[in-house]
Design a protein that fits this description.
heterodimer, A: 441 residues, 2 domains, 20 strands, globular, B: alpha/beta, Rossmann fold, 4-stranded antiparallel β-sheet, 26% strand
């Protein structure tokens, strides 16, 4: 390809859109948007010869034909309330759409100031260091890629969820992210968990209208900061339509003895490119990362995980599972980074893939970048198909082969779904995965 | 009191694995209410017979017939055989990670006995009652099926499945292997719960001890893919005393005789 530009340098109308978003914001945030845009424009275009893009054609994520979602009110909040079973257990429901957001304070946690949700611009003004820390986090060890920079420059809405020190919001917050059909949308979400606080965040990303076939291009940035002794449990279910593209950049930092339990569930979209990671930045921090992806037809699922250890006595445990069939293709890259001095750490990374027919493909590329001694670090990957002996066993108990296969697939993913802390999200995720798996068998 | 019509008829059955003939003309007839024992030395084809009966894809039937309640079983898929009332308690039960016993059994019971049998209150009461009979506590029901189970627990789980599916014809493939005395009694108790005039049982075993708990009406000795001898319970004692050589020699001689 000789490194020529394969995709647009920037989404059409990007410079104007950046200015438009920054118009009512503090100067510091406006400058950050502009800086992100400049950095994006200075980046060489992604090319299949780049290691990061070698297995994922960058043209899949070309923004050229996607108009940028306006920052002003594009449409009102959706009329239909979210599924009752999914809403019921949450303390608060945050609905986010292009041009706006709304917050339902279901148990008075916002009124009592245990929980706050506010625009990033307000945090920039009141707590610039915290805002800066969230904004600057990067989900990789290398430079930010161009798509992420677009997402920063175009972030809208850019919101921060904050759990005050010491509060325990076990019922947590449901974030409903409703992508506008046929547009490029870049929501940005920061999550701050105060010292000794506990917070659950469950996000469901779907297209706001248009049904299962609808198209959208979402580049989401999610940042979280967990203060000392804090605990974050975060789960994200992506069920965009079959015409959609989704890219996400999820990254967080944990302070002393903080814990984060992160689960990413990729079920929808025509193509996904997901970056998810965390840095155990201080002694005793613990990270658990779980993910599943289900690919059918010609879906392309590209996932990269990063576990960074920057302090002694930290631990991380990652399990990502993928199943692909038809001509679906998944790419998993996992990186464990141990910085100098991060002694006595434990870092585990496992990636298991099921390839259900000859036309489907799964690539698994685990990696280690170790700059410390005296640590335990393991990584492993498997690629295989469903076990014929298990299928026969289930059939011998009366289950038709398609049911046997579906049950085995559901079982394969169950340890990931079991990591979702909130039963309602678990139920919704199981249903979404089951629906998608029904197409697989 | 037994039903006159055979439940299971195996007629001159021949089968091979990877092109190698294993069963060379096995014939059996089991009626409702009867318990049959099938014994034989290692490699004689006992497990091949059980796998062929259940339709395992690795085994090729090259001749003969199998009928369950008069219906030709061989063209049927394994799940169709199960739905018609055949149950095989396998020698090495496989684990199904992520699928709990309750979830698994509910799907199986619905497939075999119909949706009516899986109505929550009825199904759970029946499941708990059967599990108690087999000394399988509530935690087992919520664990992934056979995952991390001991050998004895797996065998008891097979019997639990049998009780829940209510089959007409049961094949126990070395269900007694690896069981201690107490576990063996529990397994036998589970099988006794099912046994009745409508039910046929074929126990494949190496040992006499399970047969003291589940006394057979008929005993067959399989040698080199053929039933070398059939008789009453006295055959078991004879095997215990004399081993297989006295059966093997005439069978081998018979096999080498010209037609």
């Amino acid at each position: 390809m000789n490194g020529e530009a394969l995709i647009a340098v920037a989404p059409p109308g990007m410079a104007a859109a950046v200015e438009d978003r920054g118009a009512g914001e503090p100067v510091a945030l406006r400058e950050r948007r502009r800086a992100a845009l400049e950095e994006a424009l200075a980046r060489p275009p992604p090319s299949p010869t780049d290691e990061a893009w070698r297995r994922t054609d960058p043209r899949r994520f070309d923004p050229e034909r996607w108009p940028i979602a306006p920052a002003g009110p594009l449409h009102a909040a959706p009329d239909s309330p979210p599924n009752g079973a999914l809403v019921e257990p949450f303390d608060a429901v945050l609905t986010v759409w292009a041009g706006g957001w709304s917050l339902a304070d279901r148990s008075g946690v916002v009124r009592s100031r245990a929980l706050r949700v506010r625009p990033l611009g307000e945090v920039v003004t009141s707590d610039p260091a915290a805002a800066s820390a969230l904004w600057e986090m990067a989900p990789s060890l290398g430079p930010r890629d161009r798509h992420e920079l677009w997402a920063l420059a175009l972030a809208s809405p850019a919101l921060v969820i904050e759990a005050a020190d010491g509060v325990r919001l076990e019922r947590g917050v449901l974030v409903r992210s409703l992508a506008p059909p046929d547009m490029l949308w870049c929501p940005w979400l920061g999550v701050r968990v105060g010292a000794g606080a506990a917070l659950h965040v469950a996000e469901r990303l779907e297209v706001g209208a248009g049904g299962a076939e609808s198209a959208a291009f979402v580049i989401a940035a999610i940042r979280f900061a967990v203060a000392a002794e804090g605990r974050l449990r975060w789960g994200r279910l992506q069920t965009l339509g079959r015409g959609a593209l989704e890219m996400d950049y999820v990254f967080g930092r944990l302070e002393r003895n903080a814990q984060a339990d992160l689960v990413s569930l990729q079920v929808g979209s025509r193509a996904v490119r997901s970056r998810i990671g965390a840095e155990a930045a201080a002694t005793g921090a613990t990270v658990r990362l779980g993910g599943l992806a289900v690919g059918v037809a010609r879906q392309h699922l590209d996932q990269q995980t990063v576990q960074i250890h920057a302090a002694p006595d930290t631990s991380s445990d990652l399990l990502f599972k993928v199943a692909v069939r038809d001509r679906a293709h998944s790419v998993y890259r996992g990186l464990i980074g141990a910085r100098r001095g991060s002694v006595r750490i434990t870092a585990l990374q496992r990636n298991h893939n099921l390839v259900l027919n000859d036309g489907a493909r799964a690539d698994s590329l685990p990696g280690l970048l170790i700059d410390a001694d005296d640590l335990t670090c393991t990584h492993g990957a498997t690629i295989g198909s469903l076990d014929l002996e298990q299928i026969h066993y289930l059939r011998s108990r009366g289950l038709p082969e398609p049911v046997a296969r579906r049950l085995l697939l559901e079982g394969f993913f169950e340890d990931i779904l079991g990591r979702l802390a909130l039963p309602a999200l678990r139920t919704a995720a199981r249903a979404a995965v089951r629906d998608h798996l029904a197409a697989m068998v | 009191m037994t039903d006159a019509r055979p439940l299971l008829e195996v007629e001159n059955l021949e089968a091979s694995v990877a092109g190698k003939p294993i069963l060379k003309g096995v014939s059996l007839s089991i009626r409702g209410g009867e318990v049959h024992a099938l014994m034989g030395p290692n490699g004689s084809g006992k497990s091949t017979l059980s796998n062929v009966l259940m339709g395992h894809p690795d085994y090729e039937v090259t001749g003969g017939a199998v009928r369950l309640l008069g219906e030709d079983l061989l063209p049927l898929a394994p799940e169709e055989r199960a739905r018609r009332g055949l149950f095989l308690a396998v020698q090495y039960p496989v684990a199904i990670p992520g699928v709990t016993t309750v979830q698994f059994l509910k799907a199986c019971v619905e497939a075999v006995r119909g949706r009516e049998a899986t109505k929550a209150a009825v199904f759970l009461r029946e499941l708990r009652e059967n599990a108690r009979l087999l000394d399988l506590g509530e935690p087992f029901l919520n664990r992934p099926i056979n995952e991390g189970f001991s050998g004895g627990e797996k065998k008891r789980m097979e019997i639990l499945q049998m009780l829940m599916l209510k089959p007409r014809m049961v094949v126990l493939d070395e269900t007694d292997s690896g069981l201690d005395i107490d576990a063996l009694k529990i397994v036998a108790r589970g099988v006794q719960r099912l046994i009745g005039p409508e039910i046929g049982v074929l126990i494949i075993t190496h040992y006499e001890r399970i047969l003291t708990h589940l006394p057979p009406d008929h005993v067959h000795i399989l040698v080199d893919g053929r039933i070398a001898r059939s008789g009453g319970p006295e055959l078991v004692r004879e095997l215990e005393e004399r081993g297989y050589d006295w059966v093997r020699e005439p069978a081998t001689a018979a096999a080498s005789e010209p037609d």
